[in-house]
Amino acid sequence: MSIKGRDKEFRIPKVSYLDFKHIEMDRVLTMLFPRLKYDGYASRRPPRGGDLSVDEFLEDFLEHREWFAGFDKHPDIVRAWIETDLMDLVNRGKSNQALAAPRPLHGNTYKFRNAKHTRDYGAAEQIYWMLFYARKGKGQAARDALKRFFFPGIDLVTDRYDPTASVDVETQAILRLDHQVTQDMKDSKEPSRFQPLCIGQADIMADDILRLLAYEPYIPRSVLVDYLKTLMAFHLALYHLKLLHVLPKLVKQRSGNNVCTTKDCPINPDLDNALEGCPYQIALVVDMGEISNPHMAELARKSTDRLYRQIPSFIQANFVVKKLDEMAEYLSKKTGKLATPANGFFSIGDLVSLLKPEHDADRQAYFKFRLASLIEESSSGNGDVDPEIREVTEMGLGEFETFIEILMAYRGKYHRQYITQCLDSLLLKNKESGLLAQSRTKGSPRRFVLGSKLLEVLLQVAVLTQDGGQFVTREVRIEELLDFLRHRYGLYIDQLPEVAQAHSSILDRRALRLNLEAFKRRLREIGFYEDLSDAYVTQKVSPRYAIERIDRTNKGGRSK
User: Fold this and answer.
1) Please, are residues 432 and 453 in contact by the beta-carbon 8 Å criterion?
2) 114 Ramachandran zone, left/alpha/beta (phi>0; psi -120 to 50)
């Protein structure tokens, strides 16, 4: 038996724009470009005959000798360069290898995409609208800064390339091919606009993006693009890990949280303790990957398991909100029994309030019809009710609760699998730019592990501070850095979360001490830290690139 039509619909942008699947950040960035360019709208590309291939790009490089001098003498080398450095390929190295799009080094690369290979499953929308609604002007500033960074050498009014613009060789090579796609336009379909359920996480992401882009004059463009991909994946992961915690609580309390509003959300990325006052903070106990510290790996495993075990509760809560949204639309537009809110749509708080006793009659009447329809469509040809449905209906629940339980019975496992895959991909599992590790053995446990490249990105953010409206770098004590990671992102390296500290053992404290030593070694390995003394106060992290006030900046930008 299978559930059909709208009964099995799960995605609700009011909660998340994601269609939970495995997500590749190259494709997310590619699909974010048109939304930045067209202020939230997607692009509509005229149809073309067949997909673009690596061979077509190679032909252009070899034909235009005035642009690419000497390339025609070494076609094999040029092809390898295109495949390795310029193109995002699916099934790389396999017989079914195909071009998704050029690597997202420039905003106009989205015009060269092959649509079926560049699905981002709603992640670009999620990022854009998080930035759109971020408060105190940070979201607008971050979108403007991203647009300036990703569209150099392009007049956004005429969409023409300026050959005099100064860009790196890979970006210049891609821009020279811009004539392949002469038509591109804004999609006429109005985008859905919904404020993120956690506006504070959007604020922190916008602030982090602004901090990273302060390094634009000092860091090679391709490196900074990789930094941005890593940072965006990290924030998408944190946001959705928090959703696993928030949404079931809202459903359980049958109302929104008055603290979680644009006006009252206490999260403030300008403060040292950015998350202070947030009632839905999440804590990630992070292992630094030291093989000789198995107890720390176990602490990180338990922390990971605790969050991933919330996925079934989130699925059920998401089904509840989705089906209440369908009911609210019906009661407001078809029967007039429910007034549409002044803002024109039902928020998550409005929807979960429909679980209150005063709405029981309308809710049970609506879902009595939906339940009967679901059972009829799901029954076999001879009219026999599926055994799983019979089991649920014999539990004596109300019509709405029965409807949700049937959806969970038939779709719960499916969504759990794909949400797990999605979180794994956003946490960049088993990558140096990620926050999650899992061995290849089937059924092996996951644990939070801080990869070196992700640590590098977070360090670049951590050593920046505001001075007269400008970002400048500074030295940071180890203790300050650990506080920053804990109070801004919920990453616990040298201590357990407060709720667990009372029950910590001697083994726990020893494991955390060894984890701190491993953290310092990692800092030393990536070039941010030198031991000048055993004194704790003199153990500082130094910025890799020195950014000073405009009138005093070093020409090279390198730290002295």
Assistant:
1) yes
2) beta
pLDDT confidence bin for 240, thresholds 50/70/90: very high
How far apart (Å, rounded) are the C-alpha atoms in residues 217 and 229? 18
Measured distance CA(346)–CA(338) in Å, rounded: 11
pLDDT at position 50 is: 63
Q: What is the Cα–Cα distance from 26 to 222, expressed in whole angstroms?
A: 12
Give residues with Cβ within 8 angstroms of 14, minimum separation 6.
Answer: 194, 197, 321, 325, 345, 347, 348, 351
Predicted confidence band of residue 412 (pLDDT cuts 50, 70, 90): very high
Query: What's the CA gap between 549 and 448, in Å, rounded?
Result: 37
Letter string b/e over residues 58-71, b meaning 16 or more CB atoms within 10 A of that residue's CB: bebbbeeeeebeeb
What was the pLDDT predicted at 534? 56
- In the block, tokens 């050959």 appear at 163
CA–CA–CA angle 204, 205, 211 (5° rounding)? 90
Asked if residue 416 lies in contact with residue 311, where contact means CB atoms within 8 angstroms, the answer is yes
Per-residue b or e along 304-339, where b marks 16 or more CB atoms closer than 10 Å to that residue's CB: beebbebbbbbbbbbbbbbbbbbbbebbbeeeeebe
Cα–Cα dist 218/557, whole Å: 6
Q: Is residue 456 helix, strand or coil? A: helix
Distance in angstroms (rounded) separating the CA atoms of residues 147 and 106: 10
Query: What stretch of H or E contains 438?
Result: strand 436-438
Q: The dihedral of CA 58, 59, 62, 63: what is its sign? A: negative
- 98 Cβ neighbours under 8 A, 6+ residues apart: 51, 53, 89, 90, 91, 114, 117
Q: How far apart are CA 331 and CA 255, in angstroms?
A: 19
Cβ atoms of 182 and 333 closer than 8 Å = no
Tokens matching residue 145: 């800064």
Cα–Cα distance, 393 to 375 (Å, whole number):
10
State the DSSP code for 86: I
Percentage of the chain lying above the pLDDT 90 cut: 58
**pTM for this predicted structure:** 0.92
- Give the contacts of 167 (CB within 8 A, at least 6 positions apart): 106, 152, 153, 175, 221
- pLDDT for 387: 80
Q: What are the tens digits of pLDDT across the range 331-351?
A: 998 888 889 998 889 999 999
Higher pLDDT: 12 or 49? It is 12
The first and second tokens of residue 161, run together, are 């390339």
Taking residues 197-213, report their average pLDDT.
97
Query: pLDDT confidence of 560, banded at 50, 70, 90?
Result: very low
The per-residue DSSP string of 222-267 comes to HHHHHHHHHHHHHHHHHHHHHHHHHHHHHHHHTS--TTSSTTT---
Residue type, 404: I
Q: What is the pLDDT of residue 538?
A: 64
Neighbours of 485 (CB within 10 A): 23
Measured distance CA(445)–CA(301) in Å, rounded: 7
Which among 308, 305, 313, 325 has a CA at the least distance from the CA of 412?
Answer: 313
